[in-house]
Amino acid sequence: MSKPLTKEFLISKGKCCGKQCQNCPYIPKYTKGSTQIEEEIKLLDELLDDVESGKLTLGFSAHKCYMNKDHKITNHITWIHDDELKKYLVLRGLASKVDRAVQKG
């Protein structure tokens, strides 16, 4: 019995071979020719965290993301522009202010 190919090795190949490798890093999985790597797509909350921490700078670009965990499970990918991320950051800030007010309440 042979060892499964490592994720790193499969990424180095540049695309999915379609042979249902155990550590297939591509989306959609096991689809010959797929080049999108799983880690490149984050949840919306993770993108917002990256902006707040300074790991991601907003400009004039768009990002692939999952809007929520259910979308990640079903591989429902959404493109979100930096302008939309700014709006979500504002809403996130407002929500945290409301939560603090309710806790004091």
Could you characterize the architecture of this molecule?
The protein is α+β, with helices and mostly antiparallel strands and 105 residues long. It has 2 domains: 1-40, no CATH class; 41-105, no CATH class. The chain is built from 4 helices and 5 strands, in the order H-E-E-E-H-E-H-E-H. A 3-stranded mixed sheet has the order 3-4-5. Strands 1-2 form a two-stranded antiparallel sheet. It is elongated. It starts with 6 loop residues before the first helix and ends with a helix.
Features:
4 helices, 44% helix, 3-stranded mixed β-sheet, alpha+beta, 105 residues
Sequence-ordered SSE layout with sheet pairings:
Blueprint: H1 7-13, E1 26-27, E2 36-37, E3 42-43, H2 44-53, E4 62-66, H3 69-74, E5 78-81, H4 82-104
Parallel strand pairs: 3-4
Antiparallel strand pairs: 1-2, 4-5
Give me the count of strands: 5
> What string gives the helices and strands in order?
HEEEHEHEH
Through-space gap between termini: 63 Å
Low-confidence stretches: none
Q: What gyration radius follows from the Cα positions, in whole Å?
A: 18 Å
Sheet/helix structural class: alpha+beta
What's the gist of this structure?
44% of the residues lie in helices and 14% in strands. With 105 residues, it is α+β, with helices and mostly antiparallel strands.
